[in-house]
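Task 17 of the worksheet. Students: predict the tertiary structure of the chain below and write it out as structure tokens. Keep your answer in the requested format; marks are given for formatting as well as content.
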Amino acid sequence: MGTRWPRAVSVLLVGAGTMGRVHGEAWAQMQQRALGIRVVGVVDPDANGARLAADLNVPHWVAWEDAPLSEVDLVDVASPTPTHAGYVEAAAASGKAILCEKPLALTVEEAEAIASAVHRGGVRLAVGHVVRYFPAYRRAHDLVVAGDLGAVAVAHLYRGGAFPRGHRDWYQDRRQSGGPLLDLSLHDFDFLLWTFGAPASVFAQEVDVTEPTPLAHATATLRFPHGLLAQVVGSWAGTRFGTRLELAGSEGLLAHDSLRDETLRLTRRQGVDRPADVAVPGADPADNPWERQLTDVVDRLVHDRPFEVGLPEALAAIRLASEARQSVLSGGVVTCGGPQ
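Model answer:
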């Protein structure tokens, strides 16, 4: 993460909530290390914007129209999900490259409209599926692709914690957040698509409680054409955020639990002529996945290389989350890849 680019890159940050602050602090770290990053300022209509801008020592604008777009190379949209479409489409119309926090949109139709705006503007768009930049998930993907697990038959992915408290509790409104299947499990859907390809079908269930304490919990079971059975659990019913990943293959079991440690553990099956238990190093505490993601986006932008996650990957994940949601509503199995 020590890359210095051949030209300076100016970034406009849109959004100053939880993810806006995460992105802002990562950009600031990159700027402090003189990597060629300049944060132009923060756009946010609420008081959070002024606070984050002050912390970053940059200007704050309440309205998008007030920002000096002529100075901007990259617009980082880290605002709440229901505002993504408006900001991305405005940035595309202004001819600016864009990084948009996940999920790109709330629905397949909205994502496709964003894609059309990006194509009309002739701009490039990256989407923040940051789990690809967590070392345990990146290493798991690489081990599967390299064949170290043999034929993978079972996958279990969990992601969960307490119910998020966004601005004006927008997470409680499914029309704004999409619920855990879109906002939370999208990361694990993307991991499965990235690692194993598209599933054949999905069956999902969900429980949603609003009183006296909001809780939400969703499970999705996916069958893949090559035989893999995967279960994805997204939960806003816990207390402490954590993730788990288990992949069972013909040659071994790969497991990771963020609440225990950051190590990815590969256990060989008996009779396999290799070490029985291999600990794969986890994350360096100084290695921030969001900073790694932002660095990669800028590097690919400057050198005109495809983004790790662009429109095709973002659309595929939203389609799969939408199919899971369709299954919840219908109570049945949904064939993947069909009409939306």
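Marker's comment: The two ends are 40 Å apart (CA to CA). Residues 9-130+290-308 form a domain with the Rossmann fold fold (CATH 3.40.50.720).
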